Structures are given as C-alpha cells and as structure tokens.
Amino acid sequence: MYALLIGIVDMLYINCVWVLKVCFKKLNKCIYKLKKLQFDNDLRAETIVHHGQKNSLLLIKLKHLEEKHLEISDVVQLVNDTFIIHIIVLVITTFTTITFNLYFFLLKIYSPETENIKLWFIPNIAPAFYFFIKFVMIIWICESTTNEAKKIKWILYDAFSDTTDPMVRREVHLFSLQIMHRDNKFTAKTFDMNSVLLGQF
C-alpha cells in the first residue's frame, strides 16, 4: 500500500512538471510569434495610426505573456513547496537503496562464504533498478523543464533586440527583469533536481 502511494505521488510530480514544461514551451512559441508580428508591423507601417495600433496590440500581447510567465513561475514555486518532503524522501531512499545493494553485491563477490547476504541481495536488486530508473526520469523531466524556462530569456532577446519603439523596449526590459528574478528551478531547498544531483550518485 505504501509503495503504491509513493508511486502515485511520483507520477503526480512527474505530470505536474511535464505540464509546466508544455506551458513554458507554449510561452516560447507565443513570444516567437510576437517577433513575426513585430516584423510584419515594420513591413506594413504605412501610416502613423496603423503603426500605433500595431504597437499597442504588440504591447498588449507582450504584457499578457508577461502575466502568463508570472503565473507559471508561481506554479513552479507551488510545486516545489508541495513536493519538498516527497523529493527529499525520494533522494534519500534512492541513495540508500542503491548504496546498500551495491555494497552487498561487492560483499558477495569478494566474500563467497556469506550465505545470508544472498537472501538480502536477490529480492532487492529489482527495487534498486526501479528506484534508479524512476530517479533518472524525474531528474530528466526537471532538467528539461528548467532548460525550457531558460530559453524564454533568449527568445525574448532574439525577438525584440532590434525594436526601435521605446514603449516596446521598456516592456521587454520589464519582462526580462521578471525572468531574471523568477528562478524556475525544481528544488527541494537543499538541492536542485538536475543532472548534477544525478552525478553525485
């Protein structure tokens, strides 16, 4: 029963992080579409009125994406706060399971007269692989979601680096400040869920 509950919470965490990855990816696509809107704006700016309408539409869309980024960042923080204990328990359990299985495996190889170890080692080799594979999956999804969140900054700079409108430049500057202040990492307060943690195993 306990293992089933842990498995359900693990899948819930993976699903939450995956949905956040999709949200960041959609946000990146929308910012890239704004680049196209800005480019079309520069090509078709026949009158000042038309140009002003296009820029106000661009500003409204940019402000909307800025609000969406803030909401997604709040959800990342909520996921971190909600699953903090579970992630710490997962890391400790994975570390101890793999360590003890490796220890008893090496003990069995170098000390053949220990028969009691066989009883402990054989039934627990499958959980060691299970915990390791599950941990690798969680690290992978957290790392890829964090990388997707980091792309927003570069896509924003790429989309609006050559804009001349001061209002758009100001809004892009505010958006980039928001991106810098919101650290969209998956963490358990003591360690980040990334490949560095996986390398420590």
TrEMBL record:
Annotated TM spans: 83-107, 119-141
Main location: membrane
Keywords: Cell membrane, Membrane, Receptor, Transducer, Transmembrane, Transmembrane helix
InterPro entries: 7TM_chemorcpt
Locations listed in the record: Cell membrane
Gene Ontology CC terms, in alphabetical order: axon; dendrite; neuronal cell body; plasma membrane
Top-level division of the source organism's lineage: Eukaryota
Keyword Cell inner membrane recorded: no
Record-level GO BP terms: chemosensory behavior; male courtship behavior; sensory perception of taste; signal transduction
Topological type in the membrane: Multi-pass membrane protein
The protein, known as: Gustatory receptor
